[in-house]
Amino acid sequence: MGPVPKSKKKLSGWANFPAIEADVFEPQDAAGVGYVVKHTSSIIARGNGKSYGDASLSPVVLSTLGLNRILHFDPDKGLITCEAGVLLADILPVILSAGWFFHVTPGIKSITVGGAIASDVHGKNHPAKGCFSNWLISVELMIGDGSIVLCSRDENPDLFWQTCGGMGWTGVIISATFQLMRIQSSVMRQQTVHGANLEQLFAAFEENNDAGYAAAWIDTTAGLKNFGRGAVHFAEHDSAPSSLIWPETKTKNIRFFAPSWILNPLSIRAHNAIYFNKNKPGVKYVHMDDYFYPLDRITNWNRLYGRRGFVQYQFCIPEEKAFDGFKSVLEAIRKSADTPFLSVMKRHGERPPEAIHSFPIKGYSLALDFPRTRTILSLVEILDDIVWQFDGKIYLTKDACSNAKMGRVDPGSFGEPKFWSLLKGRIG
Length: 428
Ligand SMILES: Cc1cc2nc3c(=O)[nH]c(=O)nc-3n(C[C@H](O)[C@H](O)[C@H](O)COP(=O)(O)OP(=O)(O)OC[C@H]3O[C@@H](n4cnc5c(N)ncnc54)[C@H](O)[C@@H]3O)c2cc1C
What we know:
Low-confidence stretches: none
Number of domains: 2
Structural class: alpha+beta
Largest sheet: 8 strands, antiparallel
Number of strands: 20
Bound molecules: flavin-adenine dinucleotide
Strand order of the largest sheet: 15-11-13-12-18-19-17-20
Mean pLDDT: 96
CATH topology of the largest domain: Vanillyl-alcohol Oxidase, Chain A, domain 3
Helix content: 10-25%
CATH architecture of the largest domain: 3-Layer(aba) Sandwich
CATH class of the largest domain: Alpha Beta
């Protein structure tokens, strides 16, 4: 095996902050990954760079996008084995036409299987289905000496669980096998419920506890009697059989970075009023692509935040403290000069005790997208204090600037020092 292509690139996560210059290796197969791992002293694996912060940034980066082969698909059992750099978007057309979908999918399909495992991603159905690891059968992991270790619940179980949500610190995932879910229709029945304030929003989640999927949008600009109002979208897979062809979707592209002032408290308030009124209570039938991946319609929507980028702050607070925690967070935001453009609330269930690095804890999470202003870091400090006080934690794959303790993970306690990212250095 000869040297692997390497080039200097400007890299960032999806939020365009922070951005660094890195040496990027681009191996095309496991042997190439082995060459890079053996010939570098410090490296981090990078999938499609859709984590928001500094999780896949390091002075030396190993891109897995060349490992893009689906190795085996059993259409009877719904089992798929693929290399780590395969995108969920590339798997969808193959599995849907045979009547299968992911048990767990995040709100974006252009992420790699390796990224889904390393962040142990969750979807809008966490109480029922857990995280990606719940459906993961096995992983081939390249460790620091260049050897490949098969990890599953039975073989090398510690390494298996440390790799799920382990942010790439245990090694480079080469390939994985996971279980898919049977479906009959590509249509979702979606019901929207309004909560006129935060109490009603939480009540809507409680009352629809058995909904297959649930996620809410919160209007963080509303005050007084509308404080914490929002729209909750509940959904189920439609039971009537329908075409199972994954569509070729047309996307719009934001070609240039928008001026940073475009998203300001006034324009965000106006956007929120329009969103609330447009998303009226009622039932509608939508294609899975629109339900699960609405943001994928606009390529490079992150450029709307301008060159300075943005900060996504996603936290989870245990069930019994979630309402008070959310109230304190929303009050702190209203007192500050910063306003999030997007805010998504989800409910989470129990996690398997072995899934020690998974982000969700039984309770509620809120993801907030803030334009990166001069004052945002001070607000993050305040939010960290509140979330900590309510026994919460943040999602490391979104993080770029929180206090080191907030992920409730000790990077020094597992993995290999060789697999190093800016995130690991910042919180380790
Ligand atoms: C619009 C949008 C919506 C999202 N919605 C959700 C959501 O609903 N739920 C959710 O959980 N997440 C969500 N995310 C976050 C996203 O799913 C995760 O950050 C995911 O890990 C990104 O995968 P990636 O392939 O882009 O990996 P990268 O961003 O490149 O890397 C993410 C982490 O995985 C590690 N990694 C990647 N590949 C490997 C490998 N082969 N071996 C070892 N480590 C590896 C990296 O080192 C890094 O720590 C969303 C992101 C966006 C942009």
